Fold each of these.
Amino acid sequence: MGQLVDGVWKDEWYDTEANDGEFRRDTARHRNWVTRDGAAGQTGDGGFPAETGRYHLYVSYACPWAHRALIFRALKDLSDHVGVSVVHPDMLAEGWEFRTDFPGATGDALFGSDYLRQIYTRADPRASGRVTVPVLWDKRQERIVSNESADIIRMFNSAFDRLTGNDDDYCPETLRAQIDEINDRVYDSVNNGVYKAGFATSQGAYDKAVAPLFDSLDWIEGLLASHRYLAGDRITEADWRLFTTICRFDAVYHTHFKCNRRRVVDYPNLWGWARELYQWPGVAATVRPDHFVRHYYYSHDMVNPHRIIPIGPDADWTAPHGRG
Ligand SMILES: N[C@@H](CCC(=O)N[C@@H](CS)C(=O)NCC(=O)O)C(=O)O
């Protein structure tokens, strides 16, 4: 675990000392958008038109943020249009690696690099900042389009529709304000909330993260009692963004990040909803407990110094979900 400083790798854990033990996530630095015609998107530069075979996605099956991008690639029939390379689940002193000695870890299909940081320095030899997945790479300009999953899934939702013929819309204009509002709460207290609890280095910082996390899970359980999905009767981006945290929750966050007031299986509506999303066509293949269980327990030696992987719960994600 480390980061780039002027193109040089420095191996260091997150600095929580300056923030009373709180983990603060850095904001992503590459915020350009692939669009239908190459016009500039909401942020960054233009010049990234949707084209088959031009963009490549670097992911980890362990990472909930990268998982969002993989789910949208599957939902939107993008697999013949956007290639993928998958890093090894262990993220150690060198950061994410392209080792292939783990099932599903593909290596770097474009350049045969050893480390993900080489993708960042290929784009900018003096790159600084954290080396995170997902990364959407433009082969034409040899540049990172985006390393922000929230943006990548919005691009995937519509930019390639003319090429794929798939115009399923997970972020319809009429629901956008509601989706954004749900996303804000879910991001802060759930998606990032589990990390804030797990990486806290003071009791106060942990308490401050874990209470809103379970308040939000209770709120979601209530929403799902009267609606099939978070924003009503239609599945949206808000559901998929929550799902990638929920599918890791009982196996990882409950134990490793000390989020143990309740498990997902203890919330009947949330657990049924989670199974429905898992069973959605194309999604189960993106859910790789072998990668995420190994990654968290093995990579975070500040949290789990002996790297013992606990036995884990035995839940049946394929059981009927009953969410008619
Ligand atoms: N805002 C980014 C966050 C991505 C992120 O933090 N990914 C983690 C993996 S779960 C990572 O690569 N961390 C490496 C690091 O922080 O050094 C996104 O949503 O795309």
Amino acid sequence: MKSGRLIAVVGPSGVGKDSVMEGLAAADPSLHLVRRTITRAPELGCEDYDAVSVAEFEDMAARGHFSVHWGAHDLQYGIPASIQTVLAGGQDCLANFSRTALAAGDAAFAHFCVLNISARPETLATRLAARGRESQAQIAKRLAQATKPLPAGLTVMTVSNDGALDVTIAQAMSLLQPVRV
Ligand SMILES: Nc1ncnc2c1ncn2[C@@H]1O[C@H](COP(=O)(O)OP(=O)(O)OP(=O)(O)O)[C@@H](O)[C@H]1O
Ligand SMILES: O=P(O)(O)OC[C@H]1O[C@H](OP(=O)(O)O)[C@H](O)[C@@H]1O
């Protein structure tokens, strides 16, 4: 059986990665949403994740618990190695990824592709403020990192999320579809 694709969803903070991923999984229940491990307090929400302390995270990383892990926004994020079993079963998986971890992801997964979500700077600023998860200072730091290059040589599909979310989800689904049949 052909293994599933690890679809790394990237883009600047506030662009709508989690929203688009949820919409894709709702539209196609065969898509598996990867549950990340994050050193963030459990109550901050916006996505389902396993909240751990920094010490726990470092211990898990040392024991090979993650296929890929990275640091960003003063937090640590890990993609559990257990996802390899889901991929081996032929299921496509969606993971909220860091642009800085794409090369490591490409090395860690047999079938790796990138769904890059874009939006104008003013869209990002409005959405981060409305979401209210971060302080003004944290939002300013996130906006300063909005532009990060993607590494060359990867399969990248890009979709804008400046407009309505359901339009973005439909466009992303059609980008993902041709190679899924
Ligand atoms: N097309 C859209 N129109 C209006 N609001 C949207 C749209 N897409 C996402 N949002 C809203 O924008 C905010 C940011 O979205 P989301 O949390 O999905 O972004 P993200 O890219 O996962 O951010 P982060 O990387 O910071 O976790 C949320 O409040 C979400 O409801
Ligand atoms: O800017 P880059 O490196 O692409 O992404 C860094 C991190 O930012 C976001 O974190 P969060 O979900 O907002 O905490 C992404 O999910 C990723 O883990």
